[in-house]
Design brief:
311 residues, globular, mainly alpha, 10 helices, 3-stranded mixed beta sheet
Length: 311
């Protein structure tokens, strides 16, 4: 379509979660509380792991990276969403919208692959415990983490680059609480076929590949756990893995619902609910899941707090 026939949008209005004015204040308080818990939980987890020498292991190295991703992921989305609850029109400029889209995709994709890296770490720990320190060396952990961020940057760069090629001129109202792919595609006056194809292909790669990696890891992990003779050993192995399984189920379930279907099939209202889970709820739950179900983290927290009181 000829771009000269259309005036491109320079700023957008984010429709937000709800149009009902009576719900805005309760939702503002709710999501402000969620964001505060998310920030304190994830930054606290990073600080605790950094200060506790006995947590300087590959498992907690990956957990610290996941906490950083969750904090950034939530920070990209939630503050702008909170503005929507206290202003009549939540306006975002075109450059700011594309920037939000870029960083949202980067951290969302990075989280998918970080969860897969954590599953691989648990597989090595349970199935090859004697070789664990050799296989999961500092170099390997660094390469896996770097690979996670590289995939995040590549995926977000591809999506955002193709989004910048579109002429968004149908309306300036985005039917969402942040700049996401499908709501932006609905505003396009030009063909979105390639963009929708990219969403399906890259989402399949970034969601299904880590999901199958995690599934394969846990097939071997469960087989390895049953070979452990002591009941205490089995219980500890299951306890360690159950936290990761919960985090995986919450994140991949909500992300797959949103992105692994054509935009014509997905409802934006359903998409908003799904998006709330992986943009705000999951980043809040992850540090709680890993801290409340992990004896090492609880011990490190008690010892760190004890030191503060003693000093």
């Amino acid at each position: 379509m000829n771009p000269g026939n259309h005036s491109s949008v320079t700023e957008f209005i984010l429709a937000g979660l709800t149009e009902k004015s009576e719900l805005r204040l309760p939702l503002f308080v709710l999501f402000l509380a969620i964001y505060m818990v998310t920030a304190v939980g994830n930054l606290g987890m990073i600080t605790l792991i950094g200060l506790s020498s006995h947590l300087h292991t590959p498992m907690y190295y990956f957990l610290s990276s996941l906490s950083f991703i969750d904090f950034c992921h939530s920070t990209v989305i939630t503050p702008k969403m909170l503005v929507n609850f206290v202003t009549e029109k939540n306006i975002i400029s075109y450059p700011a919208c594309m920037t939000q889209l870029y960083f949202f995709l980067m951290f969302a994709i990075a989280e998918c692959h970080m969860l897969a890296a954590m599953a691989y770490d648990r597989y090595v720990a349970i199935c090859s415990p004697l070789l664990y320190n050799v296989i999961m060396s500092r170099g390997v952990c660094f390469c896996l983490t770097a690979g996670v961020y590289i995939l995040g940057v590549l995926g977000s760069t591809i999506h955002t680059s193709f989004m910048l090629r579109l002429y968004l001129c149908k309306t300036n109202v985005i039917n969402h609480y942040f700049c996401d792919l499908f709501p932006l595609l609905e505003l396009s006056c030009s063909s979105t076929y390639i963009n929708e194809l990219l969403v399906l292909v890259l989402s399949a790669f970034n969601i299904l590949t880590p999901a199958f990696t995690i599934l394969a890891s846990y097939v071997f992990i469960i087989a390895g756990i049953f070979q452990i003779r002591s009941t205490e050993g089995k219980s500890k192995a299951f306890s360690t893995c159950s936290s990761h399984i919960l985090a995986v189920a919450f994140f991949f379930g909500s992300a797959a619902f949103m992105y692994l279907q054509p935009s014509s099939v997905s409802s934006m209202d359903q998409g908003k609910v799904s998006s709330v889970f992986y943009t705000t709820v999951v980043p809040m739950l992850n540090p709680l899941i890993y801290s409340l179900r992990n004896k090492d983290v609880k011990f490190a927290l008690k010892r760190t707090v004890g030191r503060k009181f003693c000093s």
